[in-house]
């Protein structure tokens, strides 16, 4: 994962957004922008670092429980442990390869690889998912989970010491759900578990966390944005929950068309609002 420095960045927040009514998606031009230095963003960045660091520690313990269930030959328990650990990863919000090669090793799909699922570079959660649901191969699942745990441990050890760009938080607030729309709601990253809707729900949790962290920066210039986005995320959560059948998540392709359209519409509305975040909080100056 590339390291970045924050000390030279300056962010500007467009105060004209305060005149937009709640629920408005109109963009605003900052005619008199209020500069926010990266040093002023330090509390938000520190909070984000603490959030991700805590989640990565939890992730490691959950993957270890997955390994234990597999070693005991308990397929049902292993599948449940896999889902728990995978949703924790989505709550971290690793959008658009935010954690570099390690992130891809942990949760990348086979679509990017020339040899697909046969590639030795296909590792991580989705490889274990393939082992447990499609192939029923506990021996392969044990080996692949050991690789997954090693990668999670490595990321957990590196992340607290990585520099974080001041531009990263506003971009990721939008990009998490954009990733979800591309990969999960298409079903492209389903390797048998049928839990993409659950993953989107966890993505919503990660988005809420980032939106909350950025509130002190956003609210002076756009006091209605957080409330509008929160309302839209609530609607998306409700639409996702409605896709469950008898309390169980089902594959995207098995969700009735009307419910899929509702989810697509709700995530689209949320993305339209969240798209304003990196517009209102812009990094000016060099960030290397």
Descriptors for this entry?
mainly alpha; 288 residues; 3 strands; 10 helices; disordered N terminus; 58% helix; A middle domain of Talin 1; single chain
Question: How would you briefly describe this protein structure?
Answer:
The protein is mainly alpha-helical and 288 residues long. It is built from ten helices and three strands; from the N terminus they run ββααααααααααβ. The longest helix is centred in the N-terminal third of the chain and has 30 residues, at 42-71.
Description:
- There is one protein chain.
- The two termini are 13 Å apart.
- This protein has one domain (34-281): M75 peptidase, HXXE motif (A middle domain of Talin 1).
- α1 packs antiparallel against α7 and α2 packs antiparallel against α4.
- It is 58% helix and 4% strand.
- Mean pLDDT is 87; it is low at 1-13 and 15-34.
- The chain contains ten helices and three strands; from the N terminus they run ββααααααααααβ.
- With 288 residues, it is mainly alpha-helical.
Structural class: mainly alpha
In whole angstroms, how far apart are the ends?
13 Å
Percent of sequence in beta strands: under 5%
Sheet having the most strands: 3 strands, antiparallel
- At the first level of CATH, the class is Mainly Alpha
Strand order of the largest sheet: 2-1-3
Overall tally of domains: 1
Structural shape: globular
Quaternary: single chain
Roughly what percent helix?
55-70%
CATH superfamily: M75 peptidase, HXXE motif
Overall pLDDT metric: 87
Report the total helices: 10
CATH architectural grouping: Up-down Bundle
- At the third CATH level, what is the topology name? A middle domain of Talin 1
- Report the count of strand segments: 3
Low-confidence stretches: 1-13, 15-34
